[in-house]
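Pasting as-is:
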Amino acid sequence: MATEMEVREAFRIQEFYCRQMDAPMYARLCAAIAQGLTRESRTGARVLDWPGEPTRDALPLRLCGGLHALVRERKDARLAAIFSGEIAEPVSIAAALNAALVAHDDALLPWLDGPPQTNEPGRSGALMLGLMEIARRHAPAIELLEIGSSAGLNLLIDRYAFDLGGVAMGPADSPVTIRPEWRGEAPAPVRVEFVSVRGCDVQPLDATDPAVAARLLAYVWPETPARAERLGHAIAMQRARGVDLAHADAADWLEARLAEPQAAGVTRVLMHSVVWQYLPEEVANRIRAAMAAAGARATAARPLGWVMMEPNRAFAHQVVRVRSWPGHDEWTVLATAHAHGTWIGNGIFDEDRRTFDLPDSAKVEPG
């Protein structure tokens, strides 16, 4: 069980992330929670007596998602004034926040039950960069397997259009174009063909359900309306044609997929983003073992790849890494990225960041 001091520190850490990611209102909110959250509400008491590791459990984002939902539903005028910036002083924010928690306890408590499932569509840009590297190493045809797919927003990666530093990928007529700010050298063009795209999640969400869509939109930070607009288009794409999203444990599902026959000339690729920290260690170890065993069996005709975008907490950004078999079984860092895919920095990291020599509390090490 976390101490109250550790819980408050988790909100200070989230404040830092928000400031780094140009979200000043959420930064102010997290700072006020860290300083002034009380136990006068059941929600406040549950947060301060958190039984797990608050940063790893994304506790601040659970609470902020619930608060944003109240604002979107116009349930609390003073809370809305915090989000609009009319209430900006820490003491005033804390007072309005604690009052909102008391008034809306029943509505807010369920938001603490599970981690935020955003799976932001913008992350597909960083993931596509990794898939381009896999296609460059092996073959353009890719059988894509994603774990932690949440609502399947990145399972639309074969239907999104991309502009990656001026390099166009995907269908030009897509209703969603992923166009991150590009920092560094643009990637060399390469052809990527998706033979199949499948995913799983231990708690999958149906984005076509209006209630689920509203929940996903509540997790979109209010400072980024363009993200909300893009999410709406992505949900409409799913309503027009669904995605292959299974309800399954990540290790169980991946082991079964790796055991299936693989067509010659097709690269089988495991992909994930901002999910590794949520996996139980036993599940993570099984995935490592399954990929190592499948990698040992991989051939030039039937290669295996692993693409990820996972957080480096020490630098408050994501790291895009790839690994593939045969011939490239060591991790290669391709880029750093904003958590929501707003920017991708290709070639701007230094050797210290390549080593990921971080405190245990900051590590997110997949393999």
